[in-house]
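User: structure tokens for this one?
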Amino acid sequence: MRGFGFREHGGPDRLEFVDIPEPAAGPGEVRVRIRAAAFNRLDRFTLAGIPGVPIERPHVLGSDGAGTVDSLGAGVQGITIGDRVLLNPGMWDGTCEACRRGQEALCRNYRIVGEHTQGTATDLVVVPARNVHPLPSRMTMEEGAAAPLVFQTAWRAMRTVGEVRPGDRVAVVGAGGGVATAVVQVAKLLGARVAVASRSAGKAERARSLGAEAALVFDEGENSLDRVLWKWSEKNGVDVVFDSVGAVTIPRSLRSLARGGRLVVIGATTGAAAEIDLRTLFWRQASIRGSTMASASEFQEVLGHLANGGLRPVLDSSRPLAEAAEAFRRFDSADLFGKIVLTVP
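Assistant:
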């Protein structure tokens, strides 16, 4: 079976179609015929190689997928061959203490499809039955593939870790990525006032259609990130800053916080090591909080909002699987806004 991925770690020049064994559904598993898959920034890190994470090679990329149920392993109930489904890319063991508490995102054996396992940019994928969910009737296959990873990440980051409350000021640093477009919607749904801060005026303005009340543009001069956010907050500071950019923005994101504010970090696109001023942290009684993926119950909450239209995935572009290399290059486009989706014939 062929899929889009790599044989050796490196840059985009390493991307190619590779052959992997066709998977079979074992006990408690479901095999899904993929009709749409989506890329995430995670795919770039997987391609480059993640320290401490062994990755089977050749490796197929893609964490998100939607399609139809192809076969069932022994003991699977409540799922029928031919069902239209989407996949939860987060996998947990179900036996550890965190899982028993319903905190699957804290599972010591937590894995992600496409990082720790073969990915979705192919024809067939096998996952545990609990990772297979009905595709909401209002959603297309492409939308089903665009939603799972970014919306569960956004939901946990805002509702659980960020503790966003009605009336909070929430700033989203960066505007074009799939998670950022999801965070704007989730924060708005939770009753927050939302500002998007970006280096691109065009992308910041596009975020208004998702619920942002302010589109802010920052640079390294007089309009630095902390200054534009301080002005927007009427010199009160921001209650929650969502930052996945990393080393370049984290210090100024911290300086933007109100007293008791929360800086929520889910990624480090521009670098993993950031220098912060500890005096700002303790004097404002602020906190820096990390967040990754979501628990099973949080994912179910996301599905409910996707089903009723309260949340909607944003598609940047859609290409057939045969054009996966061209689709992947969209990550480097200045006008990227939303998820990059592949359709599988």
